[in-house]
């Protein structure tokens, strides 16, 4: 029996909670996550009964865990990540601790928008299954004109003007493992390859509209959304509280959404049901899922997610770290497995995607010979800010043997992917051209 089947088997869960069963060797800690994921605990906004639970070494924040993944559930074709609700078929996902990385090859043919069932999941703890009818958003703080918090239900939000945006969500640590495999550097955090990114059509209300209705003061400078998922405890046992990260008001009033739909459907549990923040072009942590509370402040706000994490630390960085990270960088990926085999002497169509947090992707160049020669790929989408472009190019590997494929994007700010990314200890914002090995046979 897999962990997820077990989680949905209420009778056995009750026995296990009563101490009658060991639940097939599932650790209680894992079970608590599954309970949260399956929505089997009390209907409180935070689904877990306990205020917090410990994360194991692979489940830490982007900046704290040792690189490495863990797939529970044995050799079945559907992997289980503790705390992720949706199925994670092995042809689509690589499970890394509490997270699931999308395999880029699984995006071939999917269109501009990533289907929700293939979209990567980055969970600090576990997906809480929240009741949309009971959900409320509280907006509070000294950055509001009135002294009292203002509360919105989902219906309240849906009555406000609707905005739809196509935008990627990408983890700041996406590509992190390339610091090690391509540049020989050791960094901490989830060892993503390139699949901690997805693009969706998000629909909701502008955060600006909600702040205005809540009575935004002209003295406000920062807003801090907080998630309703369980408090996050680091591998060394420090409770950092609920996932929360401040946003400057300038960004909050610009293009940020409180999204309740993804690709035309209500947000799925793993992606923030019923409402998430969507911060276009910025690192994923800004897009707080399961938002329940937004503080509006007349002073700058801080949380571990803009002080200890999501800054650049290390040699060549300012003492105490860089400023908090905001926009994503520039990347490209082929829709091919690593070490893919292709037929020698045959005509192939190589496909991939490129995206930038700074502007639209203006051009993509591809090399099939390790970077000796380059040619321009054909773009299949009109370049758009905060989105990615699909591209393709033909290739005929003349002889059997190993080949190295490279794709190099240039965005509308004129920036081109470099050959190397200056390292930082937590492995954020990898943007170097990736050397993708394939073999012609
Ligand atoms: N409440 C909450 N929001 C969160 C997180 C989280 O663990 N809890 N993870 C963040 C991180 S680090 C990323 S990269 C994105 C991932 O969004 P996704 O899981 O929908 O792909 O959500 C962000 N929002
Ligand atoms: Mo992230």
Main structural class? alpha+beta
How many domain modules?
3
What is the residue-averaged pLDDT? 86
User: How would you describe the shape?
Assistant: globular
Task: Report how far the terminal alpha carbons are from each other.
Answer: 40 Å
Q: What is the architecture of the largest domain at the second tier of CATH?
A: Alpha-Beta Complex
Main sheet properties: 5 strands, mixed
> What is the quaternary state of this protein?
single chain
What strand line-up does the widest sheet have?
Answer: 7-6-16-10-12
What can you tell me about this protein's structure?
- A hairpin with an 8-residue loop joins strand 2 (78-79) and strand 3.
- The chain is globular and about 75 Å long.
- Residues 1-76 have low confidence and may be disordered.
- The protein starts with a helix and ends with a strand.
- 51% of the residues are buried.
- The protein has helices at 3-8, 10-17, 28-38, 154-159, 177-181, 207-214, 249-252, 304-307; strands spanning 52-54, 78-79, 88-89, 93-96, 99-102, 136-140, 150-153, 163-170, 197-206, 222-227, 231-233, 247-248, 257-262, 265-266, 276-278, 291-297, 330-334, 340-342, 348-356, 361-367, 375-376, 378-379, 388-395, 401-411, 436-440.
- The longest helix is centred in the N-terminal third of the chain and has 11 residues, at 28-38.
- The protein has 441 residues and is α+β, with helices and mostly antiparallel strands.
- It has a 5-stranded mixed β-sheet with strand order 7-6-16-10-12. Strands 8, 9, 13, 14 and 15 form a 5-stranded antiparallel β-sheet that branches.
- The chain folds into 3 domains: 3-95, no CATH class; 136-307, Oxidoreductase, molybdopterin-binding domain (Sulfite Oxidase, Chain A, domain 2); 331-440, Immunoglobulin-like, CATH 2.60.40.650.
- The protein has 8 helices and 25 strands.
